Amino acid sequence: MSHSPFLLSAGRRTSEKTQAGIGVFLLSAALIVAVPVADLFTSPTIHLAHILVVPVALVAAFCGPRRGALAALLAVVALIAAGAERHMLSTENVLVQLGSLVALSGLLVFFGGLQERRRRELERLRRVSDTAQNVVLRALPHRAGPLSLAAEYRAAEVGTSVGGDLYAVARTAHATRVLIGDVRGHGLDSLSGTETVLGAFRAIAHRQEPLPELVADLEASVRWGLAEQLDEQPGDGVGERFATAAVVEIPDDEPYVRVVSCGHLPPLRIRDGGAQFLEVEQTSPPLGLGALADGPYTPATFDFAPGDRLLLYTDGVTEARDADGRFFPLRERAEAHAARRRPDALVESLTHDVLAHVAGRRDDDMALVALRREPADRAAPGRRARRA
Question: Where does the chain cross the membrane (predicted)?
């Protein structure tokens, strides 16, 4: 199982802040030491003592109250040393400067402590948020049966890692099942719906039942969960809470993929340098609106041979617009990256293309999941052992 990108990014943020704080402190300390040294070579009429408050302010703001107090102490020692060098330590001018430096440093350290406390509270809340969101949207395994997998997720709301788009993978005895979905809305407002859909899928996807019955059970569970949310949070009306979804089943020993589409976008199959949308003729209503269905769920079957890639995505990808209002050309870009055989390289390249297409202006969540059926000689070790 791969590590969560949310937790890895939190670790990188902490490391970068630590390194930046050390750099600021060392630079400020060098500036403080430079003041009495510079006084040895300047005219007696030139006073540099007022500069000492600048490094104290920088350290207190960026390095915390403890290092701020240390910088203030160093600044006071530097001012005393500068006054002693010029034999002016007992003069009224130096005493006023010394008193002002002590008073200003005390205030800077005090407010730096308040800022540090608030920063720690925000960081704690961010860690709690990242952990909670990681529980909702778990990292996908690199391998599932004969498949290699990779996923990429970008939330539209700043400061969040999960929104209304979702994906999940489950294994049965002889197949891999993948869910891709998009809950109505985006950002944190749709997170409760995302948790409902993912929780329902994880609870039943491992069952040894046909795909149509699985999706029927998923629909019933999601409809019940969304209705319960409606009772607790009466903001939307009946029928305004739903999720488009596609449930994909890939048998281990058959070169096929079965797709049940609940109002979701068609998967994109990449084969021999070309890309083709797998259009499902008989689609069903989105999850949560199953009462509108005309009949049972009917899966569509498509070829999926060793070496083929399957791309699942949400409308945050296909409806991404550039400055001229043009949609992102997913099929063309997928064909351009068809030589990237590994799923992780494929989703990374496509994500980069989407972000470049919109120039950083995204107003919807986006999710990409890439799967590749590995050749038989590259099957997972446990699978080869069972066959032997």
Answer: 20-38, 44-63, 70-89, 95-114
What pLDDT, on a 0 to 100 scale, did the predictor assign at position 122? 79
Between the alpha carbon of residue 221 and those of residues 179, 191, 290, the distances in Å are: 15, 17, 11
Q: CATH 3.60.40.10 residue ranges in the chain?
A: 142-387
What does pLDDT average to in each consecutive run of 10 residues of the chain (388 residues)?
Answer: 48 59 80 76 67 81 82 82 71 77 84 84 75 76 94 78 84 95 71 86 92 92 80 54 92 94 95 93 86 78 95 93 91 93 94 90 86 76 38
- Helices 53-62/5-39 angle, 10° precision: 170
Count of Cβ atoms closer than 10 Å to residue 291 Cβ: 9
Please give the model's pTM, rounded to 2 decimal places: 0.69
Three-state DSSP state, 43: coil
Give me 228's structure tokens.
């319960």
- C-alpha to C-alpha distance for 201 and 355, rounded to whole angstroms: 30
Asked if 79 and 98 count as a contact pair (C-beta separation under 8 A), the reply is yes
Residues 245, 289 contacting (CB under 8 angstroms):
no
State which CATH number among 3.30.450.40, 3.90.70.10, 3.60.40.10, 3.40.50.150 fits the domain covering 142-387: 3.60.40.10
Residue 376 CB neighbours (<10 A): 12
DSSP 142: S
Please tell me whether residue 162 adopts helix, strand or coil conformation. coil
Report which of 300, 303, 297, 270 is spatially closest to residue 284, judged by C-alpha positions: 297
